[in-house]
Amino acid sequence: MTAPTVPSASAPAALRTTGVGRSVRDSLVITKCNLIRVTRVPGMIIFMLVQPVLFVVMFSYVFGGSMQIGGTTDSSVYREFLMVGIFAQTVIFATVATSAGIADDMRKGLVDRFRALPMARGAVLTGRTLADLVQMMVTMVVLATVGSLVGWRIHEGALKAAAAFGLLLLLGYAFTWVGALTGMLVGSPEAASSGGMMWIIPVTFISNAFVDPGQMTPWLRHVADWNPFSATVQACRELFGNPGVRTSDVWPMEHAVEASLLYSIVIIAICRTLAVRKYRNATS
Amino acid sequence: MPVAIHAEGLVKHFGDVRAVDGVGLDVPRGSVLGLLGPNGAGKTTIVRMLTTLLRPDAGRAEVAGFDVLKDPDGVRRSIGLSGQFAAVDDYLTGRENLQMVGQLYQLSARDAKARAKELLERFDLAKAADRTAKTYSGGMRRRLDLAATLVIRPPVMVMDEPTTGLDPRNRLALWGVIQDLVKSGTTLLLTTQYLEEADHLAHEICVIDHGRVIARGTSDHLKSQIGRERVEVVVHRRDDIAGAREVLTARARGEVTIDDHMRRLTVPVTGGARLLADVIRDLDERGIEIDDIGLRRPTLDDVFISLTGRAAEADEPGDAAENDQTEDQPVKETVK
């Protein structure tokens, strides 16, 4: 090993970016690294893609035909109804990976390195959530393809469809921050993944994703109507022109697009603030 | 000489445990300070406070002229931290790891790339540059980790147990690198549980125990504190211990310590080799057969035992807070 010379500290010139510029730049560096990581663990990508496809097939062929949507039990109507639910559930499931990944990062020495670098404080978490968002986009493309094979269609034009995908990704992104926060709190990737399922199952099932809340008992129907998850599902059904748009006088159901946006933005604002604060003060 | 690291009255609690209890230290620019202490003594906690990873409960510290609480980013721009566990991303290649760190040190993408290439060559990692760090050996990971801390050529380096877990050959190689760094003007704060390492690398040593500095000085100074050279005799027959003791008491100055089981007697002396010859003659006259005899210079081990009443490697069950950090992780690292 030759001697590593250590000349003056000024050597490679540091970019004196500060504030937002630095924050964006650092986040993108971390995003890129996280995406490289994903390509090095191909098993993860396959699992990420197979799971939602499995859901589509299971739900359409097991439940389809026995579910009444819009006054019909026609299984092709249920399949169109179902797809938005699967889209939304899939972006929420991504949270588990975020949460476990961040818990794992925190346990390793790598986070100490990041925290001792003159980088933006939120960048490690932001980079991670952005990388997860990119993966979500890939999953959406695959799912949409599978969906069109089982009969799902866009009825309201490309612009509204794009808006619907936008809402889905925004919801998914909001929940990656829930994942980031829980990942910071639980401290172990194992707890993060099993703990994640504990709230994801009720959130996605007590909703309009797979059944018509009109058939639920009143209190459960109330929960489903106010569930942020339901708002996005309702908004997307409207925008795609899919069957099963719920008629309800509850505000988030009547103004689903606005409600979906509002919920997602509030979730990001709260969870990001808490997660970054937690990261800054982390002692592990 | 200007001071690169200055700390006073640092305190940190973890629950009921006072992990660091009023530590002050000064490291002159261009010198090496060794923090020596057993597991759980508080070394890592001190390092974490100085590198802005942990907020002290009390006290203040400046690193490279920046206050760790008021200007943490200033500190971060001036230090390279090498923690106990190689902080590299397993799924990135060596090159990608260094480029990432370079960019996070706010180098431009091009500068980060050039610097990564340079460091990979210097640290003998050029051939493995495009393999993921997961495939690296322990020594290679350490070198990559060290390279990452040198991306911006920091004026102050902080290394927490840099050679823990390395085999002797890699340890020696790393010592070489560290010495070269110091030669080129880097200030270094180093923690270690290996007395030999502190002796070898540090200009000055702080002995840490239970979160306090219990002694400080150069290695020679510390050794001279516990005194002088000693004569150590191992007698062949257990029955001769009493006789040998009389001989030593007459010749030496100080109390004779006896290890019955090993049939070993130790006593502080002055007079060096001549005295040793006298002792041998006296023993011979009495017909006491000896297995071994020698003049021993004090080691840092002796310093440690005399200061703390126990050997340096001894573990403190009470300091669970820090032990959790120091002991859980290597297991996990090796499992992977």
From TrEMBL, chain A:
Q: Which PROSITE patterns match?
A: ABC_TM2 (PS51012)
Q: Which UniProt keywords apply?
A: Antibiotic resistance, Cell membrane, Membrane, Transmembrane, Transmembrane helix, Transport
Q: Which ranges carry the ABC transmembrane type-2 domain?
A: 43-282
Offer a single GO CC term for the protein: ATP-binding cassette (ABC) transporter complex
For biological process, the GO terms are: response to antibiotic
Q: Where in the cell is it found?
A: Cell membrane
Task: Give the primary localization class.
Answer: membrane
GO molecular function term, any single one:
ABC-type transporter activity
Q: Transmembrane region positions?
A: 44-69, 81-103, 133-152, 164-186
Xref: PANTHER family: DOXORUBICIN RESISTANCE ABC TRANSPORTER PERMEASE PROTEIN DRRB, TRANSPORT PERMEASE YVFS-RELATED
| Family that this chain belongs to | Belongs to the ABC-2 integral membrane protein family.
What protein name is recorded for this chain? Transport permease protein
Source species: Actinomadura soli
Automatic annotation (TrEMBL), chain B:
Q: Which residues form the ABC transporter domain?
A: 5-235
InterPro entries, per this entry?
AAA+_ATPase (IPR003593), ABC_transporter-like_ATP-bd (IPR003439), ABC_transporter-like_CS (IPR017871), ABC_transporter_ATP-binding (IPR050763), DrrA (IPR005894), DrrA1/2-like_C (IPR025302), P-loop_NTPase (IPR027417)
PROSITE patterns from the xrefs?
Answer: ABC_TRANSPORTER_1, ABC_TRANSPORTER_2
Q: Which domain of life is it from?
A: Bacteria
Q: Where is this region: Disordered?
A: 311-336
Membrane topology, as annotated, equals: Peripheral membrane protein
Q: GO: which molecular function terms?
A: ATP binding; ATP hydrolysis activity
Tagged with keyword ATP-binding:
yes
Where does it reside? Cell membrane
What does the entry give for GO biological process? daunorubicin transport; doxorubicin transport; response to antibiotic
GO annotations of cellular component type: plasma membrane
Compositional bias per record (Acidic residues), positions renumbered to this chain: 314-327
* Listed SUPFAM superfamilies: P-loop containing nucleoside triphosphate hydrolases
**UniProt keywords, alphabetically:** Antibiotic resistance, ATP-binding, Cell membrane, Membrane, Nucleotide-binding, Translocase, Transport
Q: What is this protein called?
A: ATP-binding cassette domain-containing protein
Q: What is the species listed in this Swiss-Prot or TrEMBL entry?
A: Actinomadura soli
